Amino acid sequence: MVREGQRIDVVGLTKRFGAVTALDDLTFHVEPGAVTGFLGPNGAGKTTTLRCLLGLVAPTAGTATVGGRLYRDIPGPATVVGASLEASSFHPGRTARAHLQVLALGSNIPVSRCEEMLAQVGLSAVAGRRVGGFSLGMRQRLALAAALIGDPSVLLLDEPANGLDPAGIAWLRGFLRALAAEGRTVLVSSHVLSEVQQSVDDVVVISRGRLVRRGPLSELDTGPHAVRVRTPEPARLREVLAVHLPDAALETQPDGALRAIGVTAEQVGHLAHVEGVELHELAAEAGDLEKVFLAMTEDVEQPDMDGLGAAQPGQPVTL
Amino acid sequence: MTGLVRAELRKISSTRLWWGLLLAAVVYTAVSAGATAGFAGVEPGGGQPASPGLDTASAIRGVYAGAAFSGAYILAMILGITGMTGEYRYQTITATFLSCPRRGRVVAAKMAAHLGYGLGYGVVALVTAVVVGAIVIAARGYALGFSTDGLGRAMALAVVAVALWTLVGIGIGTLIRNQIVAILVGVFLTFLLEPLVSLALHALDWDAVSKYLPSNASTALTSASNPYVDFLSWWAGGLVLLGYAVVFAAIGVLLSRRRDIT
Q1: Residue burial A152-164, b: 16+ Cβ < 10 Å; e: rest
Q2: Which residues of A touch B97 (CB under 8 A)?
Q3: CB spacing of B98 vs A78 below 8 angstroms
């Protein structure tokens, strides 16, 4: 079944809580039919953005709409937008089944749908147990069932992988992919890129309430490569590198090893071999996305984080 | 709106609080009815006059209807308070407002659902008061007095008054979102502050104001006797109680309409 997804539009969204600016003129769009990762460190404003989209938090300025409408203007909103915000928002004395029944009744959804959803997230066996005794992973599954109860075309999930074990994360990945393949709009927030790295198509990265990057995950710049080299003759290696690879930036690490940025391990290994420099260690640093992500979000105000291609201050980079 | 009310009913029925409070109401009502019947017409000593005996209509109404009300209304109020504040305590208010972003309608649905439970509390309390009261009256050798003047009406109105107090509870809970504070304030107001204010107003000869206090409005409904105050007519008492509930809730909704749910 392919459905007509709805676009999420966040335009000039600003939210101040007293003196604290949680969101600062944030603008981005999320397209249907893909899983979009909404990334940023804790406190970046992800949850506030989602709460603005859901009409729970009133923006100071700007708009956050789904399919061009404010949440409160959508008739039967739970059947259009499904959301899970915190895995803790359950009454501990209510059973998993009763929790879903309350939601179904409130949105005029057939109560029979509750059993379907419990089965889909693998909670059928514990449906009659009180949520107070649930693990974080079970709560996450219940939160997901709650978000899906109205068969919505837009899904907003806040840190859904939090508390899931690796098998659970793999399950979630397949689940989200399938939902997006049906044409739904899926926005998944996380503060750990690696958690969602394999499930998202696009990313929206924010930090301190501002947009840092947005675009396809595949185009996230992993930055220049860096190589770690340990040698008993550091001065000689520096010389050789300076002559043959003048573009490489060199720095000495606390343990005396050299770090060459902008070159590959192959280049350094070849040179050392040809020039007869003794090496005790040669390792390419993983140009891993997590590092790029950290560098991007660590401090928006600092343009140069280890030369890993951080954004310019206050200037969102569209990939 | 029907869906919302059904959701609210399911919320109450799906946790154990409602029957815990109901159990407390039954115990409290039994004690209240037993004591009222046991001490009616007995001189308290110290030269004070005795209350009307069990051969009077007002004493019979007090045992069956008055005790049902006084045993259940505080617990009905607490049910209402927790029905609202529990949503904030457990953060389920997020899901509730996602189902229905119109916050005023959520409160209205809660009132409708709790009114139903309040009526149930009232009926159970009434049955308790009648059973316990009749046993004590019979033990003391008086006629059971089921055909006493105005007893049927007093019983029906006692049930209505209990139910209205759940709405007062919703109103208080909408105004004060912290569960513990709301319950303490509710109990403090009705148990301590209000009787004092009532006495003070009487001393100042301001009974005209005093009769609009929530518990005096309730008494007007249940028609128990109180030597200090002249009461509103029963329907006006009911309207005054309803008024408290609606005004508290309306202020709460107005204050929280734009409040961020974080």
Answers
A1: bbbbbbbbbbbeb
A2: 55-56
A3: yes
Spacing of C-alpha B39 from chain mean position: 23
pLDDT, tens only, B112-140: 999 999 999 999 999 999 999 999 999 99
- Residue A314 in this model has a pLDDT that exceeds 50: no
Neighbouring CB atoms inside 10 A of B4's CB total: 23
- What are the DSSP E strand ranges found in A53-130? 61-66, 81-84
Interface contact A106, partner B, CB < 8 A:
yes
**Shortest CA distance from B85: residue in chain A:** A91
- Report the C-alpha gap between A82 and A156 in whole angstroms: 6
- A150 in contact with B at a CB cutoff of 8 Å? no
Structure tokens at A265: 């391990």
CA–CA distance, B113 with B100 (Å, rounded to integer): 16
Given the cut 0.85, state whether the ipTM is greater than it: yes
CB contact under 8 A, B98 and A101: no
What does the pLDDT look like over B69-123, one tens digit per residue?
A: 999 999 999 999 999 999 999 999 999 999 999 999 999 999 999 999 999 999 9
Instruction: Answer yes or no: are the C-beta atoms of A146 and A83 closer than 8 Å.
Output: no
Beta-carbon contacts of residue A209 (< 8 Å; ≥ 6 apart): A15, A21, A22, A23, A24, A26, A44, A45, A48
According to DSSP, the β-strands at A154-158 and A81-84 are: parallel
CA dist., res. A302 & res. A316, Å (int): 13
Strands (E), B55-188: none
**pLDDT reported for residue A149:** 95
